Amino acid sequence: MQAQIDTKPRWERRKDARPQELLAAALDLFVERGFASTRLEDVAKRAGVSKGTLYLYFENKQELFKAVVRDNIVHAIVEVEDSLATSESSSADLLRSILMQWWEQFGATRLAGLTKLMMAEANNFPELAQFYNEEVVTRGNGLLTSVIARGMARGEFRQVDPVIVSAIVSAPVTMLMMWTHSFLPCDPKEINPADYMNAFIDISLRGLYLTPPEKN
To answer: What is the pTM of this model?
Structure first.
C-alpha cells in the first residue's frame, strides 16, 4: 500500500512550533547572512512556520539574536561555572579542559560564526555588542580568571594578574576561530586546529606553572 504524502505547508501541519526550531533556523541564517541581512520572515520560513508564529515567542530580531546566544553559548558557560566550584581537578587540568571544551563545543562549530558576526557588525549594533560582551566575553574570560586565581591560591601557578592573563589566553582561541571560519579555506597553509590548541595550551601552562611538572 503506497504511503500518502502530506502536501500541506509545514506551518499548517505544525501550528505550535517549539521555540527551539526557530532558534535553530535563526542561528543558521545569522551565521550565513549576518545580523543586518537576516529577515524574520526568512527565519520563520526556514523553521516552517508563519511569521506571526515567530512573534508569539520573540518580540523582534534583537531579542531573537539574544535568545540564540543564550541558548547556545551562555547555557554552556553557566554549566562550567557551576561545575568549577566543586571540581577537585588540578588548576592546569581545569584550564586545559575549559579551553578544549570551548573549542570543541563552540570554536569548531557553526557557533563560531556568531563571534565573526559580532566582530563585523558591532559598530552598527552597539546594544547587541554590549549584550554579547557581557553575556559571553566577560563571563568566558571570568571563567579563565577564576581558574588562574585558583591555581595561584593553591600554589600551582606563579603570581600573575589573572585578568590580564585570561585575556591573553582567550585571544589565540578567538584568532583560531577566525582563521578556521574565514581565512583558512583560502590559505594554502594547513593548520590542524587540534594540534594548534594542544600546542597553545602547553605553552600557556608552562608560562603559568610555579614548578613545571616532571615528565613521566
So the answer is: 0.82
